[in-house]
Amino acid sequence: MATSVLEHSAVHHAEAKSGLWSWITTVDHKRIGILYGASAFLFFLLGGIEAFVIRLQLMTADNTLVSPEFYNQLFTMHGTTMIFLGVMPLSAMFFNYFIPLQIGARDVVFPRLNAFSYWVFLLGGLFINAGFFFNAWPNAGWFGYANLTSAQYSPGLNTDFWVIGLQILGIASIAAAVNFFVTIINMRAPGMTLLRMPMFVWMSFITQILLLLAFPVITVALVFLMMDRHFGTHFFIPAGGGDPILWQHLFWIFGHPEVYILILPAFGIVSEILPVFSRKPLFGYTAMVFSGVFIAFLGFGVWSHHMFATGMGPFADAFFSLSTMLIAVPTGVKIFNWIGTIWGGSLQFKTPMYFALGFIAMFIIGGLSGVMHSSPPADLQQTDTYFVVAHFHYVLFGGSIFALTGGAYYWLPKMTGRMLNETAGKIHFWLMLIGFNLTFAPMHILGLNGMPRRVYTYPAGLGFEFWNGLETVGAAIIVVSQLVFIVNLIVSLRRPRNAPADPWHGATLEWSIPSPPQEFNFPEVPEVKSSIPLWDLRRELGSLPEPQRVSGAGIHLPNPSYYPLVAAIGVFVTLGGILFAQPHFPWYVITLTGVAVLFYGVYRWAFEPAG
Amino acid sequence: MHKSTGILRRALVFAPALGLLLLLAGCAAQDYPQTTLQPRGDFAHLVDSLFRTTLLWATVVFILVEGVLVYAIFRFRGKPSDAEPSQVHGNTTVEILWTVVPAVILAFIAVPTVQTIFRTSSTPPGEVVEIEVIGHQWWWEYRYPGLKIVTANELHVPVNKTVSLKMTSGDVVHSFWIPQLAAKRDVFPKKYNPLWFKAEVTGDFPGQCAEFCGLQHGRMGLRVLVDSQPVFDAWVKQQQTGSPLVDAGKVPASMSDSAYRATGDSVMLKGKLAFMTGGCIACHAMAGTATAGLTILQGPNLSHVGSRTTIVAGMLKNTPTNLRHWLTDPQAVKEGSLMKLPRPLTEDEITNLVAYLRAHQ
Question: Cα–chain-centroid distance for residue B66?
């Protein structure tokens, strides 16, 4: 009898393995990771297309390829998309797929909450872009500075799509952060103390704390803004006694930690890749952990360096300047430790290593220009110019995107069971590196020579033409590099599985199981004695045997469920209803319907048997 | 295979170095009228010397760290068949060293930074020319309370005299940026932010709004015209005629034959009629008309529009053709501009208006 129950559950799992419905109802962290990755990559391509149209418009002086309105929508959505729909969820793909695998767990601690996070993220991303079809794509910048966003100066639905869309996305981020935070605290394999966690898990852990502390601030700010726009409050409206600077403070108290939310996972990925391809452990593991903690802590005390031109007074300027300079110290420690890791190693030049090394080289440049505008008087020239655009693209593209791409080459074989082509990977790297530098290095020159940001065109005669033309050529090279990656990915996915469990001689637990992993991840929960468990084992045994696929009979796994999706639709309709908040329109009927759907979803979810 | 990857790796060295060379090339170029790198005012010099300090340190650190990185990449190339390298986990001495040394370098930036913060935040030294700057979507208004002048987009200042700006906004957040003379400072509605500078040479210095302020943020230009003292004095005298701040805009009787007192069947009178019946008067102060004394109107004061070198917030040169173009269809020239004609002007009206406006020197 007992046997037949076990067989039944094994059959049940097998049934859920393919088809659209299995993806809609999945609560498997690996499948949710793939969903995050696929969605985020499509949004990333959309953000890239937006960027390329921006570059085409700026290719020549006084260009009229796009209208001023469309240009403003493009740069608003490029920033919003790359941050909230590209880099963050690409990181979430790796959190989902690899935090449980690296800590030796069978899933995240709340698998259905995990599915809920993904669906809310997807619906939020679709919502914020839906404005496009109503000629109301957000157009007030990703930073949405008050009081331009007030109903008086932004009367259309553009800003409503933005406010509500970000609010929906924030719910997804906070739910996911709770999940990963508790997962890392509670689900580690026996023996994996905090200071034995892989560095990617550490940096992800810190990122979740940042998310939990930073997103409530933007949530409050967005609620204020929504109230100002629709319900007659004056939080940011000077005519009513409000203050636009309040928005800037709230936005950047969120916005600066957000920068570290975007870069810390990248630090983690690079800290995984470098030791493996240097064949020696991460240099200064403890220093790496605590520099990450220190960066995150200081990250909450530097927000006003985005506001030096607002006239805060010399004491505030001095404080935020010094705290910003201080953050360069732990960041420098990280860079030196990465170099320390490759120093004396036996470097294996595979594609992930190319991207990790490219990351270090580019991130150094972004870090140094960051120190340059931590000096408020100097920043009075640099802020809101292309110098700043250059800086944060060196950090977020040269930094985050290079690291995430390296992470893709490193971990996709584990996720898909298929190796990516190495030659194509290296072509991808060189095109991306050259294209990236051609696009963004000249922006330093343009900014210092007087080209402001967020202008839909520039007049002839200011000397901006040549560099802008060159930048557009660079952007075209980046486009080609991404096409190489897409082709590489598609060709690899169409081939039969060929990836061994451990193609790179990895140090961490995800390489101890087949590629792709079975639904239950680990047939037996592993025991861990250091931060490099597989290298320990390899040293002990001489070499590692290829792990075999085994029957998962008897392993308890959560059942699939569509209630997370129902609850996510409830959130979507609840907040989406506010879009219709016009006088004399019963928008609250839509919102209350959403609340009902949300409650129904959560109720059924609560009483649904988990396994 | 090994050789070709070697060449590729060498290219990795040169990509960032090339970027730095491009930057230096940019510094040396002379053809950027809006550059921050060739200061022509005392405030801009303070900022520039700090910038050069940070650039120097950043360049030194860049060369050292990228150099070590690239050296390590070449030096420690390995083959899969190589023996396992020594398994070093860390080194406390170097950890302390590379924490302390950057902190010391930062002190070399931090000290002059804090000094400059306080110098640039202090009140300007000595006697000053006071000017109020008001940002509007999408143009700049200047008022000289002492000299009793109201003008737009082109800021006239005397050379070698400290100018103290008191800056605010009439609508949303803007940022007043004059790169070669000072730097930028945001302007907020119902708040005043200061900026001061002393221009050291005469000339025409472009600037523009640096904070995103809506549809035409990209076309919110400005110019600072630094005049010698006699030229500035003459300009002041000219601008005071019919200024809303002087005798409520009344034109002195001695100037009865000027453009302000158009009479008879002249083109001037027809232009003035077009100005009043075509809708211009609803938004613009104009000497010799009913709006001459008003400072609360939405558009720029046009009493001396003929004396400006540019129109439409620095977008077009002030020529008859451009003026005609602008008056014919302002929305085609600058989409979304608040210059909205209540009705299209006739050809004749435009011809007369162009003459009328250009006569207002």
Answer: 36
